[in-house]
């Protein structure tokens, strides 16, 4: 996207620029190809700064508004990629194939005058005499302007192995702590629900501090797995749980298995349930196997009418169903994380061009920056917007 924006801006102004896209990954555009289950969730119908973490909302908004969702849709439509909306608001190519998106971007980059050098691994970048020298096994390249669009550390087999952050540091930037985001969580193997692999259910997940303060709640589908937890709600909350644990080792994660019912709501509803067995009352609201497991964990006779549970039994069941403390022991790491949290702060760039404040002539975009979005196409929208801003900014500077 940065190369396309730079090439188009140069062409519109009549300037002659030599643009190179240097990519060291073994497979070009691999992260696009694996995204969205191979369909590529290009963006979301509604995106704003509240969908992102990391740098300040005002800074994120400043970049997003320069290339909003409407611009993304028009951009891809112009390339022949028609986007269709799913019920969740996610936008996918109507072909249902990520390859459609990648092929369109590569063709557009070449049409904009960019030369794609692949595979071409950049091992080192040096700044000298107002120019950048890129060195790697294939040789050396000189550039007047450099855009770092290396990604973070998520799914390193696609090429984003964290080397971009090392380059950014070598050029004078700081990098906030990096950790996985949008990642599945691992639970203790003895957790009673670990035997329910494959069950998907809506739930509300809440991160709490060691003092029980509510830090973040995410509501949505969760998936019980053999290793712990996955699914959209889990991926979204993972970033907040991991961040909280870094700052407060006692931070915890709890689940409300009936999202709309807090413990006190459940406790109040049970006496009014009449003669329906407790297990049946739960099965009307959550998957059967999960309901049976929660009743067993609560040490309640499943055949007891819900209205005849003792106060102690109601309290136990309400706490299990409405505020279960999850025995999360960790996450599945960068190898499977969909995005990287942390990176170069936006405060170290000029937001109108994403040019570095530490190194004139250097621009940064995408996941290398300290911006990570929630699941649903938001991180791609950040890639398109920041890539456009960086590319157009670099071209404008060379014209000047």
Terminal residue distance: 21 Å
Can you identify the CATH class of the largest domain? Alpha Beta
Q: If helices are DSSP runs of H or I spanning 4 or more residues, what is the number of helices?
A: 12
**Amount of beta strand:** 15-25%
What is the CATH-assigned architecture of the largest domain?
A: 3-Layer(bba) Sandwich
The count of DSSP E runs of length 2 or more, i.e. the number of strands, is: 23
Count of separate structural domains: 2
Q: Trace the largest sheet across and list its strands.
A: 17-16-13-14-15-12-18
Question: Whole-number radius of gyration?
Answer: 24 Å
Mean pLDDT, as a whole number? 97
Determine the fraction of residues in helical runs and give it as a percent range: 25-40%
CATH fold topology of the largest domain: FAD/NAD(P)-binding domain
What general form does the structure show?
Answer: elongated
Explain briefly what this protein structure is.
The longest helix is centred in the C-terminal third of the chain and has 22 residues, at 378-399.
Descriptive overview:
With 400 residues, the chain is α+β, with helices and mostly antiparallel strands. The protein folds into two domains: 2-180 and 335-399, FAD/NAD(P)-binding domain; 185-331, no CATH class. Helices cover 32% and strands 23% of the residues. It has twelve helices and 23 strands. The chain has helices at residues 2-13, 30-34, 57-64, 69-78, 98-111, 163-170, 232-247, 263-269, 278-283, 288-297, 311-322, 378-399, and strands at residues 19-22, 43-44, 52-54, 83-85, 90-93, 114-117, 124-128, 131-136, 139-143, 146-148, 179-181, 185-187, 200-208, 214-224, 228-230, 252-256, 324-325, 328-331, 339-341, 349-350, 355-356, 362-364, 371-373. Strands 17-16-13-14-15-12-18 form a seven-stranded antiparallel sheet. A hairpin with a 4-residue loop joins strand 20 and strand 21. Helix 1 runs parallel beside helix 12 (378-399) and helix 8 (263-269) packs across helix 11. The protein is elongated, with a radius of gyration of 24 Å.
